[in-house]
Amino acid sequence: MRVRLKNVFVVYFLVSVTGLLYALMQLGQPCDCSAQLRAGAELGRARDQRLAQLQDELRRLQARGGRGPATEAPVTPIYVVTPTYTRLVQKAELVRLSQTLLHVKGLHWIVVEDAPARTPLVSTLLAQSGLSFTHLHVETPPELQRQESDPTWLRPRGVEQRNRALQWLRENRQPSDPGVVYFADDDNTYSLRLFEEMRSTRRVAVWPVGLVGGVRVERPLVEGGRVVGFRAGWRPTRPFALDMAGFAVALPLLLATPRARFDPRAERGFLESSLLSALVSLDQLEPKADNCTKVLVWHTRTEKPKMKQEELLGPEPNIEV
């Protein structure tokens, strides 16, 4: 047994010494490291190329005065004025309009409630809209309020509210500020192209309106690029036979003309003329929408909901509609 252990030890010793001698002999031999060297060279070239790119970018920035990467030119702001009042379809109308306005760059929404105070419904809707907005309120005097049984043409809605928006603009913007003001009722339908058309307004821009005044389209008549009259179903000889949705005003012009406002006691159909007559003459109007041949806004109305079954079921007091 003792002889066997001694033999195992001798064999183990010889194997270890042989391995050690081989390792020592290899230390002095050349190594084929060409693959590793090639990989290192490629990394070095890539590093040098990236460094050259960064140096070129630095030189371009310095040539531009260190302004950094080029950015889009600022767009002319559009101020959309929307009067609104409490009714069953109010939230639905405002949600629909807000979804359109979300797609318009550089837009500020001025919503004015016909109410003694801002309501929680409109406040919450605006806060969740994702839009830049201003929330105002002013109540229409009782003697100017339209009753439920009155025809829609008897008294215009939203006069005091639009004037309140004009007051806010004059208090919060300067005549040198760029911008365009558009009066957008909450029940109309708007093409996105309309907002890009109005963005270049210098004084007062005009365009057709569909489904209004008892006709398919009401529009300015254009000859040689200038407005010469109006196609309207009712009294086309008015100074400005336009629907409220059919024009936009340059902000500097509006601010430079403090007397320009809507007359709450204007004769039927003359509300728009009461504002525009203080701003421009007929030949100063700027026809848009391919010389007023394209309809980009429609005077739609939401049907008044019938609530007979609601009376039978009883109200849902905890659900806002």
UniProtKB/TrEMBL annotation:
One GO BP annotation of this record: carbohydrate metabolic process
Alphabetically sorted, this entry's keywords are: Disulfide bond, Glycoprotein, Golgi apparatus, Manganese, Membrane, Metal-binding, Signal-anchor, Transferase, Transmembrane, Transmembrane helix
Q: What Pfam families does UniProt report for this protein, alphabetically?
A: Glyco_transf_43 (PF03360)
GO terms for molecular function, please?
A: galactosylgalactosylxylosylprotein 3-beta-glucuronosyltransferase activity; metal ion binding
Question: Which residues of this UniProt protein bind Mn(2+)?
Answer: D187
Q: Please classify the protein's predominant subcellular localization into one broad category.
A: membrane
Q: Which co-factors does it depend on?
A: Mn(2+)
Family statement drawn from the similarity comment of this UniProt entry: Belongs to the glycosyltransferase 43 family.
A GO CC annotation given for this chain: Golgi membrane
Q: Identify the glycosylated residues.
A: N291
Q: What residue ranges are annotated as transmembrane?
A: 7-25
Q: What is its EC number?
A: 2.4.1.135
Q: What is this protein called?
A: Galactosylgalactosylxylosylprotein 3-beta-glucuronosyltransferase
What's the superkingdom here? Eukaryota
| Associated pathway | Protein modification; protein glycosylation
